[in-house]
Design a protein that fits this description.
This protein is 61% helix and 13% strand. The chain is an alpha+beta fold.
């Protein structure tokens, strides 16, 4: 946490300080473990087991004390302290559509007669962890004693977030006890842990929020559900590399933004289908077989300890990859395969390899060189793209074109490079009335959409190019496709309604009333399209005000056409 804060702060000295602290802490822990292992190796096995059991009991007892011992919660502002929000949130489970009572003991002080001494805000959290305020209470008076708040949960309530607040200078509040229970079942009491005695609040808040209804957990479960929708359409061979990032907008149950499924095995299933899943299964079976063979092959205790550490690291990385996108990070993947390499090399020492073919070594070298060449090429392309973006910000289209042309040549499979290059060519072609540049621009933008056919933004940009250059049918086709591949984003409907409206007005201004009515009516019908898509969302979004305005203007113009 401290290291992340240092990185976010941008202060180099803080970063170096916490890096060095981490290094020294790692050294201390490493030497402590080594010392402990050496001591364990010297003592009798029975004594070692007894010591381990004692340590285990101590850890369990200490954990129980840390997580169950509480003290009164105090929130206060001193006389000279400026007004500011000080709050702590605690979570409790609750049943939907039920009347609850929050009972608490409080000592409130408001010596300066401020607006209130403390507040309590109660939010309902649904299955997707969306918060809805259902009760709030603010107390101005000096008070010592017991108070109660009665409130009702919602039909979709899964849990409650209860926030205790203090805001004003020279005010204070101390909560010594808090309980919540259903009004018609006061014996179903839940005690609220106000403040942990031995646990810092930043850790306590994380502990409090560990729940499968928390936003992070519920979102990941939804990612998996949406991922299986994709899998059903591409079961055998998958949808290809980057399947999730390309397709998830089309299948998502509500509008969210993520480039990862947060599950490595789900990612493999979507990219390579059942065939890929079988391949990864055999890889893991082979790996676990090798780990077992290596562990059994080394009889020295010190060797087994080191091998156990490597095996534990490998298993832990794969286990956590099932809950997050660890293996999408190159550093983690390299670390994992380095550990697998250690196991494999130890396995080779124990198992004689027959008929080893020398050409496989040369093939591996060739593959390594190809990967290195491609990586270097993409890195060079990125540097040219960055330069091109800088020239774009300076409105220097000539130099931006030159740099993006090089970026595309070094990384021809990057759709975004091609689209940006095409847009630069479009701007220059329109400015210079250069038909050749416009033709090249169209080629680049079409190629970008071919590379990422399910990218809503790229489809909309290609549609805009066609519309701006007189190809109405093609333009509307791609603007409509932008909606189809990302149906829950309200702004996409604004683009579509605007396109239909502008085409309708174009025909109207040119005297073709029938064509004008056709496209203006399509602009009006965008409302139905939006409502249909939004009705399927778990978190419906409002239509943008601009979309409403375009639809109203189209409706008004339709009524005026006779």
């Amino acid at each position: 946490v401290k290291f992340n804060s240092a990185v976010a702060s941008g202060v180099a000295l803080n970063l170096i300080k916490w890096y060095l602290i981490g290094v020294f802490a790692s050294l201390i822990v490493t030497y402590a473990i080594s010392f402990f292992v050496s001591v364990v190796n010297k003592i009798n096995v029975k004594v070692g087991i007894a010591i381990a059991a004692a340590i285990g009991i101590f850890v369990l007892a200490a954990g129980y004390i840390v997580f169950t011992t509480q003290v009164p919660l105090t929130l206060k502002h001193d006389v000279e302290e400026p007004d500011s929000i000080k709050s702590i949130t605690r979570f409790v489970s609750a049943e939907p559509d039920r009347v609850y009572v929050l009972k608490y003991d409080v000592v409130a002080k408001n010596s300066s007669n401020k607006d209130w001494a403390y507040g309590i805000i109660i939010n309902s959290r649904n299955e997707n962890d969306q918060a809805t305020k259902i009760a709030e209470f603010y107390d101005k008076d000096n008070f010592i004693g017991e108070k109660t708040i009665e409130f009702s949960t919602l039909k979709d309530t899964k849990r409650l977030a209860i926030t205790f607040v203090n805001n004003f200078r020279n005010t204070s509040v101390t909560f010594t006890k808090a309980q919540i229970y259903p009004k018609n079942a006061p014996y179903e009491v839940q005690n609220i842990m106000l403040k942990y005695k031995y646990l810092p609040e930043d850790i306590a808040s994380r502990v409090q929020d560990i729940d499968f209804t928390s936003r992070s957990s519920s979102q990941r479960m939804q990612f998996y559900k949406d991922g299986f929708k994709i899998f059903k359409d591409y079961p055998i061979f998958g949808a290809g590399g980057g399947a999730w990032a390309s397709l998830y907008f089309k299948y998502q149950s509500y509008l969210y933004w993520t480039t990862q499924t947060h599950n490595y095995f789900m990612q493999v299933l979507l990219d390579a289908g059942i065939i890929g899943a079988i391949a990864i299964m055999f890889l893991l079976l082979s790996l676990f077989r090798g780990m077992y063979r290596v562990y059994k092959g080394y009889l020295e205790e010190k060797d087994r300890i080191l091998i156990s550490a490597v095996i534990t690291a490998i298993v832990s990385l794969y286990a956590h990859a099932a809950m997050d996108f660890d293996l999408s990070l190159s550093a983690v993947s390299i670390a994992l395969w380095a550990l697998i390499g250690v196991i494999n090399s130890l396995d080779i020492l124990k198992v004689k390899v027959k008929n080893k073919k020398i050409y496989l070594n040369y093939l591996a070298i060739v593959v390594a060189f190809v990967i290195m060449f491609m990586s270097t090429s993409m890195s060079v392309a990125l540097s040219f793209a960055v330069k091109g973006d800088n020239f774009l910000r300076q409105q220097n289209l000539i130099l931006a074109e030159q740099n993006y042309e090089k970026a595309v040549s070094y990384d021809p499979w990057n759709a975004k490079y091609r689209m940006t290059y095409g847009q630069i060519l479009t701007a220059l072609g329109d400015q210079l009335k250069d038909a050749a540049k416009l033709q090249k621009a169209m080629f680049e933008e079409e190629k970008a959409v071919q590379l990422e056919p399910f990218n809503s933004q790229l489809n909309a940009q290609l549609g805009a190019f066609y519309l701006a250059h007189g190809q109405i049918d093609l333009g509307l086709k791609y603007v409509l496709k932008a909606v189809e591949v990302q149906p829950l984003r309200p702004e996409n409907y604004q683009q579509l309604a605007d396109a239909y409206n502008k085409v309708g007005m174009y025909y109207l201004n040119n005297g073709d009333k029938e064509k004008a009515k056709e496209f203006l009516q399509k602009a009006v019908d965008v409302q139905k399209m939006f409502d249909k898509a939004n009705s399927k969302s778990l978190e419906p979004k409002p239509m943008t005000e601009m979309t409403k305005q375009i639809i109203e203007e189209s409706q008004k113009t339709l009524q005026e056409i006779h």
